[in-house]
């Protein structure tokens, strides 16, 4: 399609939809016109992809995830269809502007953070690698809450992302399935003496799928993301005569749980987990039957991947259907289930390992409960002779009246992977060591990756153009080609152009900050960025302590020549996470104090953006100079903002944690600022029990001074929270060792200050980061999942050049 054809089609579509002249359209109408037009364009390929998979009986992977955080899809679809420039030019000729039109799209916040965004990057890479793979999740009526700051406190508002409809989805009522809850089950013998379950008094919910196309990059592949919505089954409305009764159904897919790694065991959450697991498995089974193959081939045609333990009920659900509905024996069903399912662990935080009380599962899912009990019984019976009672019981699925979902996920699958080398090592050697002894071959590492299409091509067009010009366009399909950029590490012209690209991105963000927040920031300052969920282990507080230290230094040395810094935060706290919300309030009050202090010559500014999400990340990341990855070593499973920031030329300032260890290894020690304890050092300190944070507070003058600021009235409006935060660090012995890492953190920042003053030196470091970001492309990560876990070969349409070493 050329520019003229596009213009013609756009105008025609607009007039069909709205009758009047396209020039009168609102942004929303312009967006909808474009959205429907694009959907029409990929519709034939969507259908064809699906037909081809069925015809060829291709192996397909289904990625089960409670969260998908796709971001807006307009530009991503245009890019992948190869239409970004055509549409942009065409709109311009019509007197419209693609960037403006794009603001008409809502950003669906159907995830909390890293885990949900990873799922979205993976969907893009699966399609772009030419792999047959689909997502399976929940169509939440309301996404993650909208964050507002009122007097510096986080307030949560509902996120009604569907208010204006959703152009990309297709409701597929004829593919709906029924999910059963509650009631009770009896096992009655049929005429052949086989026990068959009979369900009594169950609550039946209709699961209706909404499908969204996942368009591959320049390869004609269009896969599917299927999100399920809960409804009252047709003809059963009379069973729900009151609003309250009807609400019970609606509620199942109403809200995304706003907890990131902290869960309270709640009935509704369990219902959500079973709802989309069961609906997904049922629809896959129905599909498999169309292939008309023996059940023994099931694992050769279907892979089911569970993103963390939230979809673990896929395991007993698959067992249930294979046995109860398809008549397979336990042994046959178990073999198939294990070979089909694989599981990714995303965290070692104890509070995040899901456990459900036995009573809850037994009451809500009686048949599933029977199956879990039997899986557990057989596991114990089989393993005791091999591993003894102690180890075996430590791996039991049912323990102290709780169902341990990770244990079920490991026992019922053929693969468990961590998300970065260090994380996988910790799983094998500590957290899941007993399982590692039992099933060493199930364990493997798959370091996370991010899609460079969204995180470089779409969000950073300036850098994209520069790369295309300097190293050619091969990197777009083979991100390891970015390494060619190293040859230009001392090329003054390239470094200068890189500097200009960054400056433009910083100006763009500065404009946003001015308009939305009324804060003036200098685009030539260092933009120091920490964007991630607010969590004690991620140590945003350590960042604040550094800001306070720097602030008091500048107050005492107003003529210092340190470069200007803008500290940029983006973070939501789980609504029930009191401490995290206190940190938010602290950051906002520190920002207020510093931004309004005329005596420091604008040497520091603090910007805490409201409602951080994918769209804001796309604005902030290209503008970053420093990427703060400062979690306590051993706690961050991987991190993914670290990869996005690196690919956009930010320098990482970090502990050796998660995938940042691998970033360090690729980029080299001269191009990254590492500080703090290593995981081994943290372990030693834990074991020795020799840490006394109060001692550091009393003996380290710098720490003393900064911590006193929290309680001596230096920071306005923090009387209540200041003391609590101080106590967490001094009285309660600083669980995440902020004070232990404080000095080396300050030191790392000093090195960054010095380097930034030499622009060419800094730009060279930025260039080296971009050049070494290729290995963190999700295309490679997905290639390894497909090859080593899902046992799938990419189709002929595969666009991925094999990763180099
Ligand atoms: N993660 O976002 C979540 N939610 C959880 O409940 C548990 C973990 C994060 O997953 C990311 C993707 O693997 C990781 O990069 C990140 O370290 C982890 O905290």
From TrEMBL:
Write the record's keywords in alphabetical order, separated by commas.
Answer: Allosteric enzyme, Carbohydrate metabolism, Cytoplasm, Glycosyltransferase, Pyridoxal phosphate, Transferase
User: What EC number(s) does this enzyme carry?
Assistant: 2.4.1.1
* GO biological process assignments: glycogen catabolic process
Q: What is its main location?
A: cytoplasm
What reactions does this protein catalyze?
Answer: [(1->4)-alpha-D-glucosyl](n) + phosphate = [(1->4)-alpha-D-glucosyl](n-1) + alpha-D-glucose 1-phosphate
Task: Give the CC-aspect GO terms.
Answer: cytoplasm
> Which coenzymes or cofactors are required?
pyridoxal 5'-phosphate
Q: Where in the cell is it found?
A: Cytoplasm
Q: What class of enzyme is it?
A: transferase
Please provide, alphabetically and separated by semicolons, the GO molecular function terms listed in this UniProt record.
Answer: glycogen phosphorylase activity; pyridoxal phosphate binding
Listed SUPFAM superfamilies: UDP-Glycosyltransferase/glycogen phosphorylase
> What is the top-level taxon of the source organism?
Bacteria
Q: Modified residue N6-(pyridoxal phosphate)lysine is at which positions?
A: 644
InterPro entries with a match to the protein in the record: Glycg_phsphrylas, Glyco_trans_35
Task: State the protein's purpose.
Answer: Allosteric enzyme that catalyzes the rate-limiting step in glycogen catabolism, the phosphorolytic cleavage of glycogen to produce glucose-1-phosphate, and plays a central role in maintaining cellular and organismal glucose homeostasis. Phosphorylase is an important allosteric enzyme in carbohydrate metabolism. Enzymes from different sources differ in their regulatory mechanisms and in their natural substrates. However, all known phosphorylases share catalytic and structural properties.
Q: Which family does it belong to?
A: Belongs to the glycogen phosphorylase family.
Protein's recorded name: Alpha-1,4 glucan phosphorylase
- The protein's organism comes out as Jeotgalibaca porci
